[in-house]
Design goal:
binds magnesium ion, binds adenosine-5'-diphosphate, unfolded protein binding, Hsp90_N, alpha+beta, six-stranded mixed β-sheet, HATPase_C_sf, 17 helices, stress response, ATP binding
């Protein structure tokens, strides 16, 4: 049988990945072990929901077998296996979901964000192997198949022999090059260390035959080699561990292991709830915006486990939209395994967990704001916009949650400030929280409308994001202080605005004003004398709820 060509795009992606994505080659093992673990999860889940299938925990394991003589490394699992079709679709085409097209449009330089999100972890094997062979027998199938590939130029699939259900991956480890040595991936102690480092919490045993030395029986000091099968990993999932036992690195490597992101998480939140609802959760606030975050493809959600078994990859009900950037997982003993998507939404336990998580995220963000302002600003640069959308879309109580987390650039402080900062600095005679909208801080600073407010010495919040003013309109007030655009007709500052003096000036120049109004019919509602201008001859102001800036944004929106 001839080779089936990888799709052209796959080929390029594969080359790109092999050359640049992983900074360390050793992670190939983490990827293959995590796939093996997923495959056992799948068969376990099936057994729990199908009474014809029995899951005997002892029968499920992952085994790593290096062989220096023929330079192979085998990763064997007793998971669900793959049919011929599955070998083809799961291993044959990378990035089916159009990630490459996306990459082209958006010029992602190193492709960091693509891996994992679209499931190309398996290909990491080619970083250390010239040939990758996968022999697999699927559950409910009599025939095993062998998939084989030498990298970018394609693969073959042929029928094969295998007794047990599961998958065996055989890596033909590369020969050493001038600068690069691959021998370490055949060394049992090195492999043991890699497994410990990345896969310690995998919940199924990862076995290896380890060679030891022992005294030959009956002799004093003569040693002999012996081989002992060891379980390398501790098998306790990280979320069940005690917080004090875990280091920052443990959390970070779990974040990477799970492909939650390739950045360093800004913060992790480890919850062990033991009250009316029992659950464990590890949540992360990423540092960077996922590349698809503001696209339709982005799906929010947390991984959901029921007593250690993964039941859903992205449980959306666990996160409100305004915290959709949060990554992580939840495990609860109190959830039923047979639960379907529809039932899940109405599940009381789940709702309680969601509520609890929401509170926790908020309080963690607040404490970050209070105790590590710099970190919070990094967070806010990435996800502040989402919080503002949250305020804007509010029909309930989000506002309460979110208003204290908002920040805007301040005219007087020349940096981001919170509403609380602003209000606590307000002079007694200042009635409103002033803001000005515009394309950039520089442009806002030059607005004629802002002159009077600035001259009074009042602080002005600069709204440079389209959503800002809309969000503030929903908020209406903060600590009983209303928001006021510097371009609104009544600024609440100068009571002289409509007094006799201006009245007089208006009357004296009635013809001029009438003429201007006539020329600008349909464009303006009125033309008036104003006391607010200092160095500028004229400015626009607005009367109603919708300010000039908002009008611009609304007009720019597609119908
Ligand atoms: P991901 O794990 O993110 O889906 P991978 O590239 O690591 O992406 O794997 C691709 C797919 O191949 C998996 O989703 C799974 O369906 C299949 N697969 C890989 N390894 C195994 C295995 N050991 N047993 C069963 N299926 C596997
Ligand atoms: Mg994988």
């Amino acid at each position: 049988m001839g080779k089936i060509q990888f799709q052209a795009e796959s080929k390029r992606l594969l080359e790109m990945m092999i050359n640049s994505i992983y900074s360390q080659k050793e992670v190939f093992l983490r990827e293959l072990i995590s796939n093996a673990s997923d495959a056992i999860d799948k068969i376990y889940y099936k057994a729990l929901t199908d009474e014809n299938l029995i899951f005997n925990k002892e029968d499920y394991f992952i085994k790593i077998v290096p062989n220096k003589k023929d330079r192979t490394l085998r990763i064997i699992d007793t998971g669900i296996g793959m049919t011929r079709e599955e070998l083809e679709t799961n291993l044959g085409i990378i990035a089916q979901s159009g990630s490459l097209a996306f990459k082209k449009e958006n010029e992602i330089k190193d492709g960091h964000d693509i891996i994992g999100q679209f499931g190309v972890g398996f290909y990491a094997a080619f970083m250390v192997a010239d040939v990758v062979t996968v022999i697999s027998k699927a559950l409910e199938s009599d025939q095993a198949y062998k998939w084989e590939s030498e990298g970018a130029d394609g693969y073959t699939i042929v029928p094969s022999e295998k007794d047990e259900v599961g998958t065996e991956i055989i890596l033909k480890i590369k020969e050493n090059h001038d600068e690069e040595s691959y021998d370490e991936y055949l060394d049992e102690y090195r492999l043991k260390a890699i497994i410990k480092k990345y896969s310690d919490f995998i919940r199924y045993p990862i076995k290896m035959d380890i060679t030891g030395k022992r005294a030959i029986e009956g002799s004093e000091n003569e040693l002999e080699d012996y081989i002992e099968e060891q379980i390398i990993n501790s098998m306790v999932p990280i979320w069940r561990k005690n917080k004090n036992e875990l280091t920052e690195e443990d959390y970070t490597s779990f974040y990477h292991e799970k492909h939650y992101g390739f950045d360093q998480p800004l913060k992790h939140i480890h919850i062990s709830a033991d009250g009316t609802i029992r659950y464990n959760a590890i949540l992360y606030i990423p540092e960077n915006i996922p590349f698809d975050y503001y696209s339709k493809e982005f799906e929010k959600g947390l991984e959901l486990y029921s007593n250690g078994v993964l039941i859903m990859n992205k449980c959306a009900d666990l996160l409100p939209d305004y915290f959709s950037f949060v990554k992580g997982m939840v495990d609860s003993e109190d959830l039923s395994l047979n639960i379907s998507r529809e039932i899940l939404q109405q599940d009381r336990q789940l709702q309680l967990i969601a509520k609890n998580i929401n509170k926790k995220i908020k309080s963690e963000l607040q404490s970050m704001l209070k105790n590590d302002r710099e970190k919070y600003e990094t967070f806010y640069q990435s996800f502040g916009r989402q919080l503002k959308f949250g305020v804007y879309n509010d029909f309930g109580t989000h506002k309460e949650v979110l208003q204290d987390l908002l920040m805007f650039y301040s005219s007087t402080e020349k940096k981001l400030v919170t509403l609380d900062d602003y209000v606590s600095r307000m002079p007694e005679d200042q009635k409103y929280i002033y803001y000005a909208s515009g394309g950039s801080n520089e442009r806002i600073a030059k607005l004629p409308q802002a002159e009077l407010v600035a001259e009074k010495g009042y602080e002005i919040l600069y709204f440079t994001d389209d959503i800002d003013e809309f969000a503030i309109k929903m908020l209406m007030k903060y600590k009983d202080k209303e928001f006021k655009s510097v371009s609104s007709a009544d600024l609440g500052i100068d009571a002289n605005e409509n007094n006799q003096e201006t009245e007089k000036e208006m009357n004296e120049n009635k013809d001029l004003f009438d003429f201007m109004k006539k020329v600008l019919t349909e464009k303006v509602k009125d033309v008036r004398v104003s006391k607010r201008l200092r160095s500028h001859p004229v400015c626009l102001s607005s009367d109603g709820e919708v300010t000039i800036e908002m009008e611009k944004i609304l007009n720019a929106m597609p119908d």
